[in-house]
Amino acid sequence: MRGQLLNSKRIVVKIGTSSLTHDNGNTNLDKMEKLARVLTDLNHQGKEIILVSSGAIGTGSRRIGLTERPQELEMKQATAAIGQAILMQIYEKFFAEYNQVIAQVLLTKDVIEDSIKNQNAKNTLFALLKLGVIPIINENDCISTAQIEGYRFGDNDTLSAMVAQLVDADLLILLTDIDGLYTDNPKVNKEATLIKTVEEITPEIEGLGKDTGSQFGTGGMTTKITAAKIAKENQTHTVVALGDDTRVLYDILEGKEVGTWFIGK
């Protein structure tokens, strides 16, 4: 059945903080370089790639010597501003090694919900894709706060699903620190088994999501199930897979049974 994924052309790839950092929270340059190489190669194959990248707050926190994710709103905004600049600098360096042009796009939730802003965002993203550019998207944390109604996505899983809706993507791939949805938390229950395919997102499936977010990240399996649900509304397939080795993207697009496939159509 995963042969349906072989023809995916427009693909949104979301990578989480845990997949971009070492266990101590420092940026994993090896993983970022390999991600740039794989995404560039997919772009060369004729795929239209959009990357939603987490890690700004974590990267900014480490740069100023914090050992854990800040809790105060102002500190989250400040570390996001610091970290976003560092992340883009690193991405630019690695993508440039493969002559791949990238672009930064920062969004707030109102851009998705306001018809004029929504169309402007679409026009920009479609123009970038037409030019062969890989847009790198993150939430605009500096102005996106819970205190401003309608401005915040809350997590990058939800953001990536809404971006997939925005561009009418064929496939959403969520790379994380676990290789899919299990019958129970495999870090606690060794008898838990991987669910390879989800045809319908039922209350029982939603109940399997248990947040296991990393020290510097937000999200867990619950937000990924929610993202898959949002994507399915637009008939977009979703695959949740382990992001330790970004070559898993090749396996997914070759129809191999890796991760959990949430059927979109």
Automatic annotation (TrEMBL):
<dbReference type="InterPro" id="IPR019797">
    <property type="entry name" value="Glutamate_5-kinase_CS"/>
</dbReference>
<dbReference type="InterPro" id="IPR011529">
    <property type="entry name" value="Glu_5kinase"/>
</dbReference>
<keyword id="KW-0963">Cytoplasm</keyword>
<comment type="pathway">
    <text>Amino-acid biosynthesis; L-proline biosynthesis; L-glutamate 5-semialdehyde from L-glutamate: step 1/2.</text>
</comment>
<comment type="function">
    <text>Catalyzes the transfer of a phosphate group to glutamate to form L-glutamate 5-phosphate.</text>
</comment>
<dbReference type="GO" id="GO:0004349">
    <property type="term" value="F:glutamate 5-kinase activity"/>
</dbReference>
<feature type="binding site">
    <location>
        <position position="54"/>
    </location>
    <ligand>
        <name>substrate</name>
    </ligand>
</feature>
<keyword id="KW-0641">Proline biosynthesis</keyword>
<feature type="binding site">
    <location>
        <begin position="218"/>
        <end position="224"/>
    </location>
    <ligand>
        <name>ATP</name>
    </ligand>
</feature>
<dbReference type="InterPro" id="IPR005715">
    <property type="entry name" value="Glu_5kinase/COase_Synthase"/>
</dbReference>
<feature type="domain" description="Aspartate/glutamate/uridylate kinase">
    <location>
        <begin position="9"/>
        <end position="239"/>
    </location>
</feature>
<keyword id="KW-0028">Amino-acid biosynthesis</keyword>
<dbReference type="InterPro" id="IPR041739">
    <property type="entry name" value="G5K_ProB"/>
</dbReference>
<dbReference type="InterPro" id="IPR001048">
    <property type="entry name" value="Asp/Glu/Uridylate_kinase"/>
</dbReference>
<comment type="similarity">
    <text>Belongs to the glutamate 5-kinase family.</text>
</comment>
<keyword id="KW-0547">Nucleotide-binding</keyword>
<dbReference type="GO" id="GO:0005524">
    <property type="term" value="F:ATP binding"/>
</dbReference>
<feature type="binding site">
    <location>
        <position position="156"/>
    </location>
    <ligand>
        <name>substrate</name>
    </ligand>
</feature>
<keyword id="KW-0808">Transferase</keyword>
<feature type="binding site">
    <location>
        <position position="14"/>
    </location>
    <ligand>
        <name>ATP</name>
    </ligand>
</feature>
<keyword id="KW-0418">Kinase</keyword>
<dbReference type="GO" id="GO:0055129">
    <property type="term" value="P:L-proline biosynthetic process"/>
</dbReference>
<feature type="binding site">
    <location>
        <begin position="176"/>
        <end position="177"/>
    </location>
    <ligand>
        <name>ATP</name>
    </ligand>
</feature>
<dbReference type="Pfam" id="PF00696">
    <property type="entry name" value="AA_kinase"/>
</dbReference>
<protein>
    <recommendedName>
        <fullName>Glutamate 5-kinase</fullName>
        <ecNumber>2.7.2.11</ecNumber>
    </recommendedName>
</protein>
<dbReference type="InterPro" id="IPR001057">
    <property type="entry name" value="Glu/AcGlu_kinase"/>
</dbReference>
<dbReference type="GO" id="GO:0005829">
    <property type="term" value="C:cytosol"/>
</dbReference>
<keyword id="KW-0067">ATP-binding</keyword>
<dbReference type="InterPro" id="IPR036393">
    <property type="entry name" value="AceGlu_kinase-like_sf"/>
</dbReference>
<feature type="binding site">
    <location>
        <position position="141"/>
    </location>
    <ligand>
        <name>substrate</name>
    </ligand>
</feature>
